[in-house]
Specification:
Two copies of one chain form a homodimer. Chain A has 352 residues and is of the alpha/beta class. Chain A folds into two domains: 120 residues, Aspartate Aminotransferase, domain 1 (Alpha-Beta Complex); 220 residues, Type I PLP-dependent aspartate aminotransferase-like (Major domain) (Aspartate Aminotransferase, domain 2). Helix content of chain A is 36%, strand content 13%. Chain A contains eleven helices and twelve strands. In chain A, strand 9 and strand 10 form a beta hairpin. In chain A, helix 2 packs antiparallel against helix 8, helix 4 packs across helix 7 and helix 9 packs parallel to helix 11. The longest helix of chain A has 24 residues. Chain A is globular and about 55 Å long. At the A-B interface, helix 1, helix 2, helix 4, helix 5 and helix 7 of A face helix 1, helix 2, helix 4, helix 5 and helix 7 of B.
Chain lengths: 352, 352
């Protein structure tokens, strides 16, 4: 604490990302990174863009990349916004679309950054408790509100809300913003992008960090009606004109274009997830049905916190959240088949 | 305008950066980019970092880069903060150190992003008018305030405030934050970094965009007491955990380390600036004394706005601000000797 901190700097509780340990080599199954490298086209594009043009500012409007993403989703360029990771877009969305003293809704168990943004931007919120199976109770999202945000699939549960239920939420909330955070949509879910033409209040946020193996690059995007994109641009351009560097702009295009590679690695991850889930069920775990690149698991006998520590000792990092309702669960990122074999063998050893 | 925009999204007036035209090739003297490429070590480092580790998140705390910058300035790592361009650090500083209804001070003619940040974060401010020679009247910075921010050298004037005057400001403002935006300090000014040990309320912000030829990379840093850096981290970690990508982290280190290259190009720019200034004075221009990589100029007969348009027709972009007190001035970035020769020849042709 410092006397020079603002009131809000004193009050906020910053988000804590998963560990990025530098002390030793772990099998990292704690931050939902992709076990496969990015497309070789991405690497080529970076090497090509590593040139003297770096002395010049990047295109602040990211026009070329927006065109590529628009084409991928059959949208127009003005329906696409680019951010420095999907977190930056979420951070812009709170002041762009939500107002102080006009409470928004999101699930009680969800991406823990939402409460952090709400505090930073003085946005009130009501938590909607997930049901006992960790599903979002969509009927609760029809009560009076001034905005809705949730991830689909949800984090850290991995649980997916089918498109019909998303449509139900949108039908009942035509007067307010509905933001769907689709960071994990490429691992078996169906994007709500097909609903964009019907709902001018729908904003979809995706990222290249997970399904396109580019967590190290920081690139996210939002899709929505052009007026919503303009709203995001107003906030972004009141914050930082040039958020995306030339290297990221150059190689993100290639990541989107290389659909063969993309489909190959995401299908591999889906297969590995299903195999891992079955094995864990055999070990006696309860495994929440996941459409993400992670599993959310609990064991009837072996406490999650203990298992987390034991796995760490064995050189395997998973994620444990010491928060109500989920403090006996572990979130396990889907790694390569080899990594998951090691994980499963180790878990089996540790079980009572 | 959209019914889904927040109140603040409707009210803000976003910053407008200098043109980044894509229609044709201009001599770009409008956004203070460096005419020389980044150090060859930077390019090498990017090519090396373009590898499969991009699938992993970067170090959110930027530890290695902070160590390199700390060593360069003889500070400790916890006195260094890294941002996605110095603009992002400025954007974090407003909510981190300033409070609504507690007005801060900055010059009337200065970096036009300050008023944008103030509006976005609901910070009140009083403008301190520069004197008729465009100097910051430091005695005006001793009146009651809740924070001070100004660039040194100032933008868009290029005028530099000597370190003794900075010290005077700090002596009179020990209870409030004083933020000095040193984006252009490497072109002949003396950084206030030597004052950090005496003033725990001093935050200095620098960038790799100008003197290190990396505008295309987005990398800025702040130097200050560790408690101030912690304040910045609290806001940053309530906004976006991973703001700097792996490529930027890898190559920024090399840009800081290659001091020979850095000193060579900044000295070249200083020499070109002085030669250009002398020539412009010969042409009848008034040239504000600059310690930046640009000149702020006005002509007694030829209107700046007209000259701006004429230069653009001739394929030369400079910056013109249609704002009170400076609407008859042009800001001209110092390019290579060849670019400045073309600029000067063209200007001479256009003068009455």
């Amino acid at each position: 604490m410092s006397i020079f901190w603002s009131e809000i700097a004193k009050q906020i509780t910053p988000y804590v990302p998963g560990e990025q340990p530098r002390d030793k080599k772990y099998i990292k199954l704690n931050t939902n990174e992709n076990p496969y490298p990015p497309s070789p086209e991405v690497i080529k594009a970076i090497r090509k863009a590593a040139n003297e043009d770096l002395r010049l500012y990047p295109d602040p409007d990211c026009n070329e990349l927006r065109c590529v993403i628009a084409e991928y989703f059959t949208l127009s360029k003005d329906q696409v916004f680019i951010g420095n990771g999907s977190d930056e877009i979420l951070a812009f969305s709170f002041p762009a679309f939500f107002n102080p003293k006009k409470p928004i809704l999101f699930p009680d168990i969800t991406y823990s950054f939402y409460t952090v943004y709400a505090k930073l931007f003085h946005i009130d919120y009501h938590l909607i408790p997930l049901d006992h199976e960790f599903s979002i109770p969509v009927d609760q999202l029809t009560k009076k509100n001034f905005g809705i945000i949730f991830p689909n699939p949800n984090a850290p549960t991995g649980k997916y809300l089918p498109i019909e239920k998303i449509k139900h939420v949108l039908e009942k909330n035509k007067e307010v913003m509905v933001i769907i955070d689709e960071a994990y949509i490429d691992f078996g879910g169906k994007s709500a992008v097909s609903l964009l033409s019907q709902y001018p209040n729908l904003l979809i946020i995706q990222t290249l960090s997970k399904s396109r193996s580019l967590a190290g690059l920081r690139l996210g995007f939002a899709l929505g009606h052009k007026d919503l994109i303009e709203g995001l641009n107003r906030v972004k351009n009141s914050f930082n004109s040039y958020t995306i560097d030339r290297l990221a702009l150059a190689c993100a295009k290639e990541a989107i274009k290389d659909t063969t590679y993309f489909n190959n690695i995401r299908n591999k991850i889906i297969t590995t997830r299903e195999q891992t889930a079955n094995q864990l069920i055999d070990f006696g775990f309860k495994v929440i049905d996941s459409k993400a690149n992670f599993l959310f698991i609990t064991h009837p006998v072996h406490p999650a916190e203990k298992l987390f520590s034991q796995l760490k000792e064995w050189g395997i990092l998973v994620r444990y959240f010491k928060t109500p309702r989920i403090d006996n669960y572990l979130r396990v990122t889907i790694g390569s088949d080899e990594q998951m074999d090691t994980f499963l063998t180790t878990v089996q050893k540790l079980l009572p």
